[in-house]
Every structure is written in structure tokens, then in C-alpha cells.
Write a structure and sequence with these properties.
Blueprint: E1 4-7, H1 15-25, H2 48-68, H3 76-91, H4 95-102, E2 117-120
Antiparallel strand pairs: 1-2
């Protein structure tokens, strides 16, 4: 039996905490999104960049499939290659801006930002 216990109050089930920790690591103060200052997943009007980009990509896939003339693929690999080509085409115009961003990015944390604390089994953790 271990003398330590993991206390995981959120069990990584809420992306808000992971996002908050990541923003703290990079010294970024996120824009207030709503009254609760939370990021609501799958809410395009609240997650502008991420949700908007995803929506635009889905539209681009739909348009590319229409131009292709068929939504049928011989194999899953063929479909994956179709998507890969579409992503490369869409990202081609973003390379200069991405290179500029890379010069300012800091390294990821050395260890994963965790929602868990390791406490001695005889301890009490206030969560």
C-alpha cells in the first residue's frame, strides 16, 4: 500500500482548468469571455479563434468534397490523404505568420500541468 495518495478534484474533465494553467504558465491573461470567466467548449461565439477555425475547416472540407464530385473514398487512407492535402493547402498562406509566432513562443512546461496533488495518506487536502 502506498504512503501517498493522489487527490484529483477535477480529473481533467474540465478543460477550463487546463486552459487556465496553460495561460498562467505563459503569462497570458485571457480575455473575459463571459460572466463566469470560463471557456465553454463548442460555443463558437465564445471561443472565437478555435471554434471559428474549426467551422471554417468543416466548410472547406465540404466545398472540397463538392468540387471532387464524390464523398466516397476507396479507403480510410485515401480520405486521410485528402484531408492532409486540404490542410497543407489551407496552411500554405499562414507560414510567414507562423514563423513570426515561433520566434516569440516559450517552451512548454517541463512537466505536464496537472490537476492532481500528491499528498501523504495521513494528510487532509482542502479542495
Amino acid at each position: 500500500m502506498s504512503s501517498n495518495t493522489l487527490v484529483c478534484p477535477f480529473l481533467d474533465s474540465d478543460p477550463v482548468y487546463a486552459y487556465r494553467d496553460l495561460m498562467t504558465h505563459y503569462g497570458v491573461v485571457p480575455q473575459r469571455i463571459n460572466v463566469r470567466q470560463r471557456i465553454n467548449v463548442r460555443q463558437a461565439h465564445e471561443n472565437g479563434d478555435t471554434e471559428s477555425s474549426h467551422g471554417h475547416f468543416k466548410t472547406a472540407v465540404d466545398q472540397a468534397l463538392l468540387l471532387r464530385g464524390s464523398r466516397d473514398f476507396v479507403s480510410r487512407d485515401e480520405y486521410a490523404e485528402f484531408l492532409k492535402t486540404l490542410v497543407k493547402t489551407r496552411n500554405a498562406g499562414r507560414q510567414d505568420r507562423f514563423a513570426e509566432e515561433l520566434t516569440t513562443l516559450r517552451h512548454l512546461p517541463a512537466v505536464r500541468l496537472s490537476s492532481c496533488l500528491k499528498v501523504p495518506s495521513a494528510s487532509t487536502a482542502a479542495v
